Amino acid sequence: MKKQWLISGAVVMSMLLGACASGTTGGESGEGSSEGEEQVPEVSAGEEIINIGYTGPLSGPAAFYGENTVSGVRMAAEEINEAGGFEVGGTTYKLNIVTYDDQYLPNEAATNARRLVQEHNTPVVFVPHSGGVFATQVFNEQEDFMIAAYTSEPEILNQGNELTLRIPPAYDQYPEPFVKYQQERFGTRLALLPTATQYGKDWTEELVPVWEEFGGEVVYDGEVDFGKDTDFFPIVTNALNQNPDVIFVGGPSEPTALLMKAARDLGFEGGFMVMDQAKFEEMDGVLGNFDDIEGAIGMLPIISSDAPGAESFIASFESELGRVPTAESAFNYQAMYVLVEAMKLAETVEDPQAIMAQMDAGVKALSEDKLVWHLTGVENNGFDWMASIAAIEDGEIVLIEE
User: Where is this region: Disordered (predicted)?
Assistant: First the structure.
């Protein structure tokens, strides 16, 4: 039986009347799972709505990260709707983003994704963490929906899942340029102090062999539970007792910045390798400047982008949300626009396989004013971005060419 993905204008008007008191509508709340939230756009006669799903951490320690990811999706959808929607097969469609909170828990993400498809008929679900992606990949092909995965974990594309799109670059492209830069500038002795999450462990497993291949040695092997640890001085002291030249760090931006500052306060003068979860632009907000993270290598802030659509996106984001956008916001914003282009080229808003097949062409059809960062296409189900590695040199952010 063919799935009914669409909501007609007449039905939407009745939904709006029922929801006008709050401006949002909610799904039923089950035990241990969140209530779905949506802001149904206004439609004219003959227009229809397509629901797009999102499950991510909207409460708890990772809530700010979750808000960064979904804000890019919402902002793109709002712009598309305000411009009159988009046309497929002679019908004009508008986008409704339906969000569920999974608190960064893989099992909740899977439950939410299933509910989004069953209750809201979403052909695509955005999932911004690897655990949630892996859990959802168990059934998404059978239940016929596409996962728009915001995670740099390379293994998500090694599962043989044809309906998974990886949005950000995979982190396995970073260790070699990170290692070359740090060993040349600071030395070969490495201390490990990444986040204690599975993502941190996977990143470490990718990094250490490259560090050793280029002649380095690991002198301290530790990790930090940012959900529990608030005093970083003891573990940093233990690491510094081994006289490292470089420290590998990463996790949420704010506590990672404070850990790096603790190292400086204890006399560390070496470099930092920063995994892609932590962002320099957010560290600046915590530390006030880049003095304490001089010599760090990590991700280029989107505010430093020279892509043709970056300036407009940054200005709009700051105006609407009152904060500087991160890569999470920017890449998901761009992904939403590419998704719409793929729907137009596939001539369907309801067939995930046909839409997925047009994602590469959708990238190439994207207008330049929506290019927030340089994106050339889709390769092996992952967006192919230009490398965006940066270092802090003399207090300034400098792009590192591979």
Answer: 23-43
Instruction: Give residue 35's pLDDT band: very low, low, confident or very high (50, 70, 90).
Output: low
The string over 302-319, giving b where at least 16 C-beta atoms fall within 10 Å of a residue's C-beta and e elsewhere, is bbbbebebbeebbeebee
Under 8 Å CB-to-CB from 110, ≥6 apart: which residues? 132, 135, 136, 138, 139
CATH class of the domain comprising 6-171+307-385: alpha beta
How many CB atoms within 10 Å of residue 337? 24
Tokens found for residue 264:
């400086």
Report how far apart, in Å, the C-alpha atoms of 276 and of each of 104, 233, 251, 258, 279 are: 17, 23, 8, 16, 7
User: Going by CATH, does the domain composed of 172-302+388-400 fall within 3.40.50.2000?
Assistant: no
Q: Could you check whether 6-171+307-385 and 172-302+388-400 share the same CATH topology?
A: yes
Q: Is the pLDDT of residue 402 over 80?
A: no
Neighbours of 376 (CB within 10 A): 12
Q: Which residue, among 143, 101, 149, 139, has the nearest Cα to 118 in the 3D structure?
A: 143
The pLDDT assigned to 147 comes to 99
Angle at 202 between CA 257 and CA 228, to 5 degrees: 45
pLDDT at 30: 31
End-to-end CA distance of the chain: 51
Evaluate whether 204 touches 277 at the Cβ level (below 8 Å).
Answer: no
Distance CA 198, CA 194 (A): 10
Mean pLDDT, residues 220-242 taken together: 94
Cα-based distances in Å from 300 to 118, 132, 271, 297, 362: 39, 26, 17, 9, 25
Q: Could you give the CA distance from residue 206 to residue 194 in angstroms, rounded to a whole number?
A: 13
Indicate the residue type of 116.
L
N residues, the chain: 402
